[in-house]
Amino acid sequence: MALPKIHPVGDRILIQYQEDKEQIRGGVIIPDSAKEKPQEAKVIALGTGRKDKDGKVTPFEVKVGDIVLAAKYAGAEVKLDGKKFTIVREDDLLGIIG
């Protein structure tokens, strides 16, 4: 995958949610508008890092390529080249999967 043309700043992280396959409950296909937002996402790009009180940059706990668990309604959605990405703060990430 080619890197998108956006680079997060500060403690922000660019993620792409892992799209679920068609959700079927009780034999009924759930339409896109009724599907729950996925929480698993892949880290695409990292910002410059958070600065502490002394001005030192704190490194990220995640790295590009990690699969993370993000808060359900965190971040700002961005559409680039027809693909959906989300920019979140590192605090909005709940954990690293796997």
Describe this structure in words.
Strands 8-9-1-4-7-10 form a six-stranded antiparallel beta sheet, with no helix packed on it. The protein has one domain: 10 Kd Chaperonin, Protein Cpn10, Chain O (Roll), CATH 2.30.33. Helix content is 0%, strand content 42%. With 98 residues, the chain is mostly beta strands. The model has no long low-confidence stretch (mean pLDDT 83).
* Name of the CATH class: Mainly Beta
Strand content: 35-45%
Number of strands: 10
State the separation between the terminal residues, measured CA to CA.
21 Å
Strand order of the largest sheet: 8-9-1-4-7-10
Order of helices and strands: EEEEEEEEEE
CATH architecture: Roll
- Biggest sheet overview: 6 strands, antiparallel
Total domains, how many? 1
* Shape verdict: globular
The fold-level CATH name is 10 Kd Chaperonin, Protein Cpn10, Chain O
What fraction, in percent, of the residue positions are helical?
A: under 10%
Structural class: mainly beta
Unreliable parts: none
Look at the structure and give the mean pLDDT: 83
Number of helices: 0
Radius of gyration: 15 Å
CATH level-four homologous superfamily name: GroES chaperonin
